[in-house]
Design a protein that fits this description.
79% helix; mainly alpha; 8 helices
Amino acid sequence: MASLTEKTDLIRSSETTFAYYLSSIVIEKPKISVWMILIPIILVYHMYRHKSYVEGRQAFAENFLITRNRALEAAVRSIANEGPLDESSVVKEANIPESTKEEYAAWVRVLMTHYKDLLRCDGDSFDALVRSAYKNKTNYLLFLNILNKSEKRFNSVLKPHLQDTTEGVAEIIERMEKGSEKLRYQEAERIFP
């Protein structure tokens, strides 16, 4: 039986893998062409763009994981202290507009509940924890639907605040939401064949 620390590491590892897969959907990889091979200066430019792509994916994944890691740590504290879930500490740490905090708190609560459910179960892999917590694909898909909806609600209240500072924010959020749904469905298919 895995310890609380081991289960936390399994969940964190799964979230990290998810973040990197999602980054490859959200951030476009520069394509190489024949001209790049024939004209070296163009190849140098491609290499520069590729380096930016790799760094962008890294930054995306790190930022994507901030809330998830905070929610996971709060769920661990809740279990260790045998207390209720309290998303307020996660919400306080977030640097977001005041008008988005209610939807953010609701999304964090969904994450924390999910993590706490996984941490209470037995399993030596992330997939085993999910199977133990949700029992079947239908239950897991119902949870994923709740998670997707809570993320979309938060994104919808956050988007107006980002439109002035982030170019193409609507397209980025749409790719994130569609990519997340696709990856989560694939995950459910893998865990519950």
